[in-house]
Design a protein that fits this description.
Elements: H1 7-21, H2 28-32, H3 41-50, H4 69-82, H5 97-109, H6 112-138
Amino acid sequence: MGRGVPAHVHAEAILSALQEARPACLTIAQLMAHHPSDTSDLAWAMLKALLPTPPCQPPKGGAPEKWPRRNVVDAIRHITDNGTKWRALAADFGIPWRTVFGYFARWAKAGALKWILDQLRRRLRLRLRLRLRLRRRRCPQLPRPQRGRSRQHL
């Protein structure tokens, strides 16, 4: 903060800068709102590729989606993370709960949510196997799993 300048002047300058830089569809409250369930940039990069193709992108074309998909995914994650009702969706998401539920229901009916979960599980298993192989290379004395034999229970 500058010397001799009241703190509220800096706050007003920050808010006006945010107001000018924000997309038309988002409010300052939505830009500043963060929930523990919000998707990180890394997670979003992975999820974005797994989501179904938007209706406006196939060869037929269509109207562009009104709501950013990341915000929809964040809203769905917020509902599932907190176990709240769809109608209790926090207002700072800026998306009507019926819209969020519509995306969720459409994706679930199309099998997209199960497919996404399967793909993420597969990636996690591959990553864990790779780590285990690298660890075994560094420490060859680690026991290897026995294949084809049943485990003996004590």
